[in-house]
């Protein structure tokens, strides 16, 4: 294979045990711009030998890292944050080119990633143990909190930098070694860029590695390897179930952030104009390729027709196409095959009674923002995560009916409720079976200091703030007998 030349060609190496090296596999892989089809970079895949070296080095160097002064770990986080600030334009460009991010989405992803690093810089100082009394004379019970060991992070392609850094930065901050397996569609922003940032920030060699290879070659081995204590995965529920099963067989902890059939409830007393604005953003931001994106918009019957008209008119005004254009809201899907899949979804929805009000056409990897009304709650397309720019508008008879419609989904990641009565919104939110619910806002929310996670088929575990510290550390009981014990009958 003749290697391509582009401004991204220098990202053709792996970062293993503190060195930039070629992978050891015979398999070559390609990274393409989803909008233009341009090949950005080609690289040699990692194999199981690379993976083994990465894990063993992360274990050895991670132990040393966990014993460094708190100020050293905090400084590395702050230096990484400075790298992010200084390289903003480079990072935004990479996100646009590699993941098809619109400029709006890329800049938001850069901003939220900076915030993750800022929050993580405080984590070394927030690890707390306990002293607990004892029933035994002279005994002191200490419950210590310490790094788990080595964390394996499997990164996604949709918010590659943010969703990888959400695990990597906290795990490093509390003293773990880390090995990343980035999504094959985004090896740079989901892995190599992170390694480069931390290398320049002063992270000791070997604490962090990136092994970029196909799931068929190193996917199972990444989870089964005896060294990592926890596998953090963000992606589809189907793949997450497989990882959870494999990790369970090897008695490993997991943090799984999976799919979401997210819904917004628009109650009869909602400010319709504000609800429409929020629903459009929550549905079409990053082409709907977000685990938290709205799938279903469930509207009270008394305002349904008005909402649908205003929603459709707003969608008609959205700019779609070139993600580099700062006015574009809806850019390309990650692959043209995803466009084909969604066109079939749109057709099937209509066969089951839905009405196509706008969109339903495509050009290359760009699918027009699409609106389907009169979607039955039992329509097959309303049962699964769409992961694309297709809005499903569902009619509910009343508040109780809306809650029932939302909760019949097997997923429970994020959701929202619109109402002019805040306490009513809070009460409805409590009835919605979802890890996160936002009153008078859309579903796409993620703040570094607040818990993040889903229920049901949307995953296990919590990210963010104190919840991240809990997830990436372990507690142990160490007792000290200050006065020797007397043992009966001895």
TrEMBL record:
Q: Which InterPro entries match?
A: Ald_DH/histidinol_DH, Ald_DH_C, Ald_DH_CS_CYS, Ald_DH_N, Aldehyde_DH_dom
Q: Which Gene3D superfamilies match?
A: Aldehyde Dehydrogenase, Chain A, domain 1 (3.40.605.10), Aldehyde Dehydrogenase, Chain A, domain 2 (3.40.309.10)
Quote the PROSITE patterns the UniProt record gives: ALDEHYDE_DEHYDR_CYS (PS00070)
Keywords attached to this Swiss-Prot or TrEMBL record, sorted alphabetically, are: Aromatic hydrocarbons catabolism, NAD, Oxidoreductase
UniProt-listed Enzyme Commission number(s): 1.2.1.65
Q: Which residues form the signal peptide?
A: none
Q: Name one GO molecular function term.
A: salicylaldehyde dehydrogenase (NAD+) activity
| Pathway where this protein functions | Aromatic compound metabolism; naphthalene degradation
Give me the reactions it catalyses. Answer: salicylaldehyde + NAD(+) + H2O = salicylate + NADH + 2 H(+)
Q: Which family does it belong to?
A: Belongs to the aldehyde dehydrogenase family.
The protein, known as: Salicylaldehyde dehydrogenase
Native source organism of the sequence: Paenibacillus nuruki
């Amino acid at each position: 294979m003749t290697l391509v030349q582009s401004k991204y060609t220098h990202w053709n190496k792996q970062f293993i045990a503190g060195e930039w090296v070629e992978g050891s596999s015979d398999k070559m892989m390609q990274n393409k711009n989803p909008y233009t089809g341009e090949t950005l970079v080609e690289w040699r895949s990692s194999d199981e030998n690379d993976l083994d070296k990465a894990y063993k080095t992360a274990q050895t160097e991670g132990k040393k890292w966990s014993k460094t002064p708190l100020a050293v770990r905090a400084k590395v986080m702050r230096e990484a944050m400075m790298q992010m600030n200084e390289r903003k334009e480079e990072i935004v460009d990479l996100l646009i080119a590699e993941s098809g991010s619109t400029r709006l989405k890329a800049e938001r992803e850069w901003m939220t990633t900076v915030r993750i690093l800022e929050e993580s810089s405080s984590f070394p100082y927030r690890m707390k143990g306990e002293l607990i009394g004892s029933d035994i004379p002279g005994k002191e019970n200490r419950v210590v909190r310490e790094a788990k060991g080595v964390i394996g992070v499997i990164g996604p392609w949709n918010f590659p930098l943010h969703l990888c850094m959400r695990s990597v930065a906290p795990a490093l901050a509390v003293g773990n070694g880390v090995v990343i397996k980035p999504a094959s569609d985004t090896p740079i922003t989901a892995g190599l860029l992170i390694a480069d940032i931390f290398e320049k920030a002063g992270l000791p060699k070997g604490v962090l590695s990136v092994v970029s290879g196909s799931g068929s070659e190193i996917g199972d081995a990444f989870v089964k390897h005896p060294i990592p204590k926890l596998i953090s995965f963000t992606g589809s529920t189907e793949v997450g179930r497989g990882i959870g099963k494999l990790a369970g067989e090897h008695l490993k902890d997991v943090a799984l952030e999976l799919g979401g059939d997210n819904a917004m409830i628009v109650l009869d007393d909602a400010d319709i104009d504000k609800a429409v604005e929020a629903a459009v953003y929550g549905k079409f931001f990053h082409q709907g390729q977000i685990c938290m994106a709205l799938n279903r918009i469930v509207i009270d019957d008394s305002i349904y027709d008005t909402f649908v008209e205003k929603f459709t008119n707003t969608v008609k005004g959205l700019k779609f196409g070139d993600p580099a254009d700062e006015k574009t809201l809806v850019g390309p899907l990650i692959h043209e095959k995803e466009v084909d899949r969604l066109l079939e979804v749109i057709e099937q929805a209509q066969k089951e009674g839905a009405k196509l009000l706008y969109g339903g056409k495509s050009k290359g990897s760009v699918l027009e923002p699409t609106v389907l009304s009169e979607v039955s709650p039992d329509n097959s397309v309303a049962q699964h995560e769409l992961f694309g720019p297709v809005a499903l508008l569902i009619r509910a008879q009343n508040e109780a009916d809306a809650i029932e419609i939302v909760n019949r989904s097997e997923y429970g990641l994020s959701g929202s409720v619109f109402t002019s009565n805040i306490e009513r919104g809070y009460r409805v939110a409590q009835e919605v079976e979802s890890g996160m619910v936002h009153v008078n806002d859309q579903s796409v929310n993620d703040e570094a200091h607040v818990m993040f996670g889903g229920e049901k088929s949307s995953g296990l575990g919590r990210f963010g703030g104190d919840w991240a510290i809990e997830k990436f550390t372990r507690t142990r009981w160490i007792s000290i007998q200050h006065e020797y014990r007397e043992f009966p009958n001895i």
